[in-house]
Amino acid sequence: MDLTALLLSRIQFAFTVSFHIIFPSFSIGVAAWLTVLEALHLATGRPAYRLVFEFWLKIFGVAFGLGVVSGIVMAFQFGTNWSEMSRSTGPIQGVLLSYETFTAFFLEASFFGILLFGRTRVAPWFYLFSTGMVALGTTLSSFWIMINNSWMQVPVGYAVENGVFVPTDWAAIIFSPVVWVRFPHMLLAAFVTGTFCVAATGAWYLLRREFTAEGQIMLHMGLYLAAVLVPAQIFFGHLTGDYVHNYQPVKFAAIEGRWHDEQPAGEVLLALPDAAVETNHYEIKIPVLGSLIGSMSFDSKEVGLTDFPPQDRPPVIIPFFAFRIMVGCGLVMLGLAWVGSYLSIKGRIERNRLLLWATFLSFPLPFIATLTGWFTAEVGRQPWTVYGLLRTADAMTPFLTTRAATISLVVFCSVYALIFTFGVIYIHQLLRAGPVNRLVLPPNAATPKRPMSVVDGPIAPSPHHLVAGE
Asked: Which helix (H) or strand (E) covers residue 40, if one does?
């Protein structure tokens, strides 16, 4: 086996999945936000809600397209770089991915066109229903992906026949308790991403003293939603840690930076793990707290990395630091959401430029938290693709060469970088243009074959005059 090709394949998949996850985590949250906006517009009739809806619909359309394209290309690697994994796990993973297609993609494809072209062609209640169906479709997509990934983390409901994993209990696979901890954790991460992007955009407009009515809606609603969602996200994060503690003790030890058994166990806040000598340098540690976090006990025994053979341990540095970055981002977002919501309720947030700047600059935090959370989960699972059953080295395409892996890595990085650059530039242009005081309507030349014509085409005057403050 070519170990260099293995390393390059892992880097390639890590790069593509990191690139891809940025867009679904954003679009899932924005789709839910659009549903809330459309419901508020239908219930109150306030034109400002529709203006903000049309504005974010354009941004959602771009991000959604980038997510679909990057996801499809990413899936090709299962055949090119990881054919042994596809062969051995196909009876389970292939079915789960097909469920994603038949549920999520069909919903999105059926109703997204109505969002773009159907505002004046369907009843208002049906337009709201269509918005909800698009949001449901994005949610179902993450649901099936998380079932798939959770099965790789904690395989259940299977039997091995001739080296192939065959499903024996679909209920156990779909309703695994691990799924119903990890799926809400990921879904809430997407919602938090959407709320902070919305709040940051509103703060940006208020700092620039433009689109103030719409900016106030974005800022206030984004912070209020985040104030509720972030604590829920932290709670499910704790439950996710419990599953890791119970089912993947070596990953938990790597996250904690714990090399040797401890009773009671301390909690390492910061350190520099050194796998060569199996110790931590510059360690800052709180006694007993590790047992309390791991087992909700003051005197539990917690296992260390040295309980496991070196070949079965993950690389400690990445999950150790990625986890702490994720937690740090979560705590900062929690503080911003609660302080911002308090000042919003008191009516003082628009005058607090320091908090407006902090909210605006916070928009990368949910993306960083999502990425580092995935790094913790996926790198911490190594050296296994299917935990405890299929090693990553055995999942790779056996005849893949270093040359082929290098070429594909360079091509993927170049193409993705190009797509990302133009996508971000275009979204930035939409943000700078802002929610103008006119409602977006499809131009006469708009057709389903040219969905971006909705963005580029003319915009019709609003049927309602926008009243300041609405």
From this structure: helix 3-44
